[in-house]
Amino acid sequence: MRFFAQSILLVAVCGFATAIPYSEYILAPTSRTLHPVSVYQVNGSVTSPETLTSPTGSATFNGMSAVTYDYGKNIAGVVSITVGTSSSSDAFIGLTYSESSLWISGAASDATSDSGLDEILWLAVGQGPGTYAVDRSHERGGFKYLSLISNTTASIEVTSVSTNFTAVPVNDPTAYTGYFHSNDEKLNRVWYAGAYTNQLCTIDSEWGNSLVDLGDPAPAHFWYSNSTISNGSSALVDGAKRDRNVWPGDMSISFPGIFASTNDLVSVKNSLDSLLVLQAANGMLPYVGVPFFSIINEISFTYHLYSLIGMSYYYHYSGDLQYIQDNWDHFTKGLAWSLSYIDDSGLMDVTSPADWLRVGMGGHNIEANAILYFTLNQGLNLAALVNDTNSIDTWQPIAETLKSAVNNLLWDSTAGLYKDNETTILYPQDGNSWAIKSNLTDSSNKTASISNALKARWGPYGAPAPEAGAILTVSPFISSFEIEAHLLALAPQNAIDLIRLQWADFMLDDPRMTNSTFIEGYSADGSLHYAPYSLDQRVSFAHGWSTGPTSVLSFYVAGLQLVDAGGSVWKINPQVGDLTSVEAGFETNLGSFTDSVTVGDDGVISGLNFTTPTGTTGSVSLPGVAGRLISSDGTSVNLVNGDADGLAGGSWSLQMLIGFLAIRLVLEGRVMNFKFILGFLFALFQITPINGYDADICCNLAKSRQAFLSPVPAESNQTCGQTFQQGLAPATPLYVSYRFCAANCGGIGLAKANDPNAWAMPVINFILPAVIFSMTIPRRKLVDYNYLFDFEQLHNRSFLQLLVSLFLFILILFPIIIDTLVWIFVIVSGAGNMLVGALYEAHLDYRIVKYIKEGDLDESTLDRRRELLVTIACGNLMLETGNPQVSIPKSLMMTATPDADAREKSRSRLLNLLGAQAGFGSTCGSPVLFYLGAFVYTILDLQSNPSSEDSAESLGFGIEWMIIVHVAIVSSCLLASNNPSTSAGIVGTGHEALEPPRRLVPAAPLGSYMEGVGQRKKPWTWERFSQTILGWSDAYETEFQPVSLWSRGTNKMKWIRRSRAWREDPEFRALMEITWMGWFFKIFIPALLLHVLPPGAGGIVAYFTPPRGLGCRSLSFMIYAFCQITVTIFSLLTNATENTPGLAQRIFHGRAFRLLSIFFWLVSFFAAVGGTIMQISGVYNNCICSGGATSWYNINQVNPSINLASDTASARAASVYWTIMGATATIFMALNCYIGWWYQRLIRKRFTEAVKDIVSDTEAPLLRPEFQMRPDDSWVRVSDPEKSAFSGIVLDPVRLSEPKNWDMERQAGWDRDRDRSRSPSLRYGHARPSSTSSQTPILVFGNEAGRGEVGLALASPRRPRPRSDS
């Protein structure tokens, strides 16, 4: 219940916060009627001034007094006040304005010119109750603080103060067409503050600054805003407060920012037209628009070029070619005017100082020439569009010469910067920034050098502009070009750091600022003095030329770039620096452009989703990323060195190569990284089952609301819930945003009982067979309530026994089911440990058999070999319980001098130990066939329905649960019996006696139990409680107990190390020792293959199941695989250091190491078992899982696209991967099953042969005393005729050419003392080859009566038998 409640809360909060994307960042007001938000200060006696922060209130000014109100942000508009009562008809309220808290005054407003402060505005409020407003000509373009002043002794009641917001006069101020968001709140706020600054600089074109009293010094002078500055209803000006005129230089920064945020191209065009109409006959364009144009009438070489650049920008953002064609003469004449000033040096010779109020403008100025070079290249592009080949032919060589001349004359390699001109040592910020922006540098080294040198000059408040004057000044205008230069120099971190330092930390958050708009300029020491102005109050706090970050963050950091006009050709090239997520969007007349980028911990992009308009084309550049791009229609384009070209407009997403992604996740530590796991948990935690997710319902809802993302298919192609049918075309993908999905389709799509493909298929086909396999895997402990069915008091009452049994069965069914499930969870979590332990034992068994088979065979080694045979068959038993290593060999009668019966019993019991192990085929082979059949059925089902995601996910999780089958296969092929009952029977011990108290004896009270009738009671203990109540007991009720599967190898090594062979034979010890290479290649690699392939193959199935990519399902596979690899490594280290005293043993057997192993067990359990449960129950059916894992950590900001259509082309195409992985899993399991069968058959055969060799039914001393050897050991003579029916010699077969089939009749030297007729008493007519060596025949001598054997002779009994490779 708590989980559901928290989930509902999280979804509710997320849905509320994202109702309007990023609306919390937009500073523009939702209403044009604004009221103060707080009282900043009060002077004199004012009653209840705080009430005026509401639409209605009542504040009384008692005599001479004043109140300063804070609007919370910089605003613009016409102020009005409502007066209730006044005690005098001569009462006045004065108004003063200020953008900064520094300039609040009761005598005047801050300044709009250098000549002095702006006069106070007086409202005659003594005429009676009513609303009094300033005239429109005195609308204030920028103010945060409004002061109300009473200068008489009258008592005045004011009931309301409001401002009519006049900026952005035509459009809804909140109607943004662009957005930006990243994981850095500073950058987010800077972007929106820049957008809002440009909105304040967008004014009614009839209410520009009239510039009265300009240059007339006065304590306070008149000011008006009633000049028409352009045609149309709105215009873009330089600043909100001043100059409220059109300046082309300012537009070069504010224009791109407006496009990226509000796309108000109409206002920009009106301002641009107002400049073009002022072009002189010689082509010169004005320094500034009207009315300032007629007042100063100066020539500016740079601002002239900015007007031409404005024309190029307008075409670039609007795609309006007709505008260029209509104004082409303006452009060519204007450029010709600039080119006329190029002298023999190839550079433009600047003859006017007018610029952005910098000093030193003149001569071959680097800034002016860089801007000219940029304009020339813009002109060449435009000329091609209008087919002006003459201009192209003229401008091209001029541009080439200019670039060469700049680098020859103005580059200073020592400083790593361009000089302002040839005659100075000034290295300007503007010229060097423009050199990079215009591509004037002739090498990447110069570009990087400029970027580094500019950064080295930064101060605590930003980037200085030494060209601004004697007082070191920070110009946000030129710094805007610098941040773009850093990005063009491929140094995004420099740009991001400068934005944080200068714009966020100082220009936005300094308490003297407006905290909402950007200042025009200030001193490098942080004082608000701008060097070009003599009056500090003149500086503008909302200046469009300071808004460079708004466009730069969208175009470069987020990487949304228009290559051709209107975005007909585009490029996605994010430069994210240290950001981990970036998202941006804007609109052109062609449609919407959006992208979202996520970044790994190594700074390399790991996720990308972007949308561009249909009919456009473009490219993507992602340096350092390997993968491919998948479009919404299923088109796939591989990245080549991180680049992809020729992409059609539409919705695309990055799909990283699985190997590349896995390597990066491991290198970054993100598989177990806290943030990544937090995202995984958050993805599962913030969903709720209320109003469960249903893709078909959500799709139809989006269709009805027209909420599909671009490109939106025709309505006839918007098919929801399509299922596969032969001949039916694939459905068109239908994408919605995550925010839409979360807001309208949030929740969990729990599996439906009437849809068995979603839940029954994986359970019946794979999980239930895996449960059956789990029962074949040996275990030590289990829940057992057999004692409950020992009815001592109900004998001869069968019916009552049946009823009681049924009741008890129902009672204990639940704990037994829980026990079975827990055992399955243990297998899944500890598969790595189990495989290592089992493979370790198998390897030791193989080496023991090899030793027995190939070692010396003489009387002195027999006991060792018998003991080792017992070790093979019984080495899984705990040495601490029953002492099996001593009791079992003793019971096999191996220590006494055996007679024929004893030898037969010994042989029989050894073979019984082997026979106690069930055959591999019955234990594992047959169930494997059933499991393989499930695979084949699912694969065939996918062939008939290639877009069935349920079948695919069933296959994926079925492959993962194959890990249980692999553990069962390995455990089943081991030679040691899993059941110790046979060993206990051979030794002669029976079942452990059940204690009477565990039986249903009425006399036994619940709190105690009886040893017998009349015996005293014993107290309860934990052991007694766990056995009696919980049923937790040993799996086998015998004296001997097996060890757990993960301890099988180390336990068998304990048996080996206690054996005589280990103590007496160095060769055996050397054979049993495993090197680190042996551990790696013979145990670790096989274990790795067995437990990594199931989740790996399942993960690939999930990865390629739509939505493709790393998601809830594929991530659970990846986490499980990673944890099992770790568990396997830990287990390997623990086993390998078991008998290695020292630091390694202390580390790998210590408590901390075990706790770490337990942690990975628990994570494995959560990933495998939890993931399967969530898949079966439908938890994974939700908006978050559909959005992909790369967006989880900030999914609301990334806002991934989600496809709601089924049976799409990409879904059908994915079936190829499903089939391949299913076939791979099928073949791999079959191969493992065969190898397991082959291994057990081989080891069984060799064990049996070894038993027959060492404990044969013909066993006798190898050479009895009556047999005498010749000195050369080549023959044997029977010397006691009383004990033998004949005598003879046996030649050494090693020296014969035909060692096999060694016929005694061919040999010479028979003793004629005996009748040859007795020879038929020999058991065989020729020597019998040994079962262990073809070169060592065995000769059996029979007595004269043919009863029994006299003995067994070898030709060379002391000679080691020749070794063979087998």
Write structural notes for this entry:
The chain is of the alpha+beta class and about 1350 residues long. Mean pLDDT is about 80; it is low at about 1-20, about 660-690, about 990-1015 and about 1255-1365. The chain contains 40 helices and 40 strands. About 45% of the residues lie in helices and about 15% in strands. The longest helix has about 45 residues, at about 1210-1255. Helix 22 (about 830-855) runs parallel beside helix 40, helix 23 packs antiparallel against helix 40 (about 1210-1255) and helix 24 packs across helix 29. Strands 1, 2, 3, 4, 7, 8, 9 and 10 form an 8-stranded antiparallel beta sheet that branches. A 7-stranded antiparallel beta sheet has the order 11-22-23-24-29-26-27. A 4-stranded mixed beta sheet has the order 20-21-25-28.
